[in-house]
Amino acid sequence: MILITGGCGYLGSHCAINLLERNTEICIVDNFSNSSIEILDKIKSISKKHFKFYQGDVRDKKFINALFLKKNIDAVIHFAGLKSVSESEKDPSEYFSNNITGTINIIELMKLNKINHFIFSSSATVYGNQHPPPWDEKLKLKSPTNPYAKSKFIIEEILRSFVIDNKEFRAGILRYFNPIGAHPSGLLGEEIHSGRNLVPAILNSLIHSDEYLSVYGNDYPTPDGSGIRDYIHVSDLIDGHLKALNYIKTNRGCHVWNLGSGNGYSVLQIIQVFESILKRKINFKFEGRRKGDLPEYWALINKAEKELNWSPRKSINDMVYDILNHLNKTRPNLKILKN
Ligand code: NAD
Ligand code: UD1
User: Whose CA is nearest to atom 22 of ligand 2?
Assistant: First the structure.
């Protein structure tokens, strides 16, 4: 059985469905700090499968240990954590507590209960601002400055040390670039209120006709002046998790893989993709650069392609279509998609 921590969140819920559809036994732990109980029904209705859910916090040792004792868990996919850079700057200790303490807790209890397979949600943000793109896993990292990125960097270091002292323990560190997209059913996707990322901001401008999208920066040294990122469909990203889990079953140690599409798209290109599917214009204005943003970055994904036999299948058009299909299904009164 696989434990999915944070399994009611954006990425964890897609992972749960994928595993259930492959008839894998799973259980989910979530404290609902950034999700809700309704997600459980959505996972059930899409997968048509049963699974166990436990409400609780990954920092609660008694709770996690009782779960490990009760269930026959042989792997943990650890999504539970906080993910906003700006929030982390306002409340660093909450980020260190949830992300670092939560992860240490899980791996210590895994050791105690002889559970040896661990997949960790890291982020491209660990590369910081020291290297020109594309970024590959061999680049040397320095501790990043914002608390969110620092928490991911520190956990990566902890995992590298942990496997040295615990030879049977295997860890897969996945550095996500920009996951977007939604489940093809349209029932599940990223919550629009969840932070100030580009996709929720675009959707917000579609929902509220009097609001416009702020495009942060038109003077970057990029072909059209707007920022470039590597967007990856959530379903491709989750596929990478299952392949990483298979890999660590036969390979000891701590392994790192980038999960991105390997391509960069600018903010203006993303807007154009939305406009072509919507068959209408998006209301946007240029604003100054957002503090902390880099002009451009994207991933080198050769390592995951070669070692995991993984490659992303969904195009940027697929990602945007699925996002709009989700909006269309959840807010039918908006009549977002024409046909
Ligand atoms: P999310 O907020 O949608 O999901 C996280 C889930 O974990 C939520 O359901 C939340 O309630 C739960 N949770 C948080 N703290 C918890 C705790 N202490 N105990 C139990 N449950 C807890 O986020 P997501 O987008 O699904 O991201 C999942 C992971 O991937 C996070 O660790 C995040 O840092 C990382 N990540 C996400 C992105 C992204 O763009 N979505 C990019 C890079 C890395
Ligand atoms: C951000 C986080 C990163 C996290 C990722 C999750 C920061 C600095 N980085 O990445 O750690 O892993 O989210 O997806 O917060 N943009 C606009 N208008 C908007 C919002 C964004 O123009 O309203 C632009 C940004 O300037 C950037 C691009 O869109 O060029 C993508 O931004 P965003 O979706 O916020 O992701 P990142 O900043 O890449």
Answer: 215
- Describe the chain by its helix, strand, coil percentages, rounded to 5: 45, 15, 40
216 is catalytic: no
pLDDT in tens, 10-19: 999 999 999 9
Q: Phi/psi of residue 183, each to 5°?
A: -70, 140
Name 30's Cβ contacts closer than 8 Å, sequence gap at least 6: 5, 6, 7, 8, 9, 12, 53, 55, 80
Predicted pLDDT of residue 330: 92
User: What pTM was estimated for this model as a whole?
Assistant: 0.97
Alpha-carbon gap, residue 199 to 180, rounded angstroms = 7
**Per-residue pLDDT reduced to its tens digit, 115-132:** 999 999 999 999 999 999
Using the structure block, give the residue that is written with the tokens 């490990």: 68
Q: Ligand 2 pocket by C-beta < 6 Å: which residues?
A: 85, 123, 125, 178, 196-198, 201, 213-216, 227, 229, 267, 290, 292-293
Q: What domains sit in the chain, N to C, each tagged with a CATH number?
A: 2-180+231-259 (3.40.50.720), 198-229+262-334 (3.90.25.10)
| pLDDT-flagged residues of the chain (< 70) | 194-195, 339
Q: Which residue from 90, 230, 286, 290 has its CB within 8 A of the most atoms of ligand 2, so it is best to mutate? A: 290
Whose Cα sits closest to atom 35 in ligand 1? 121
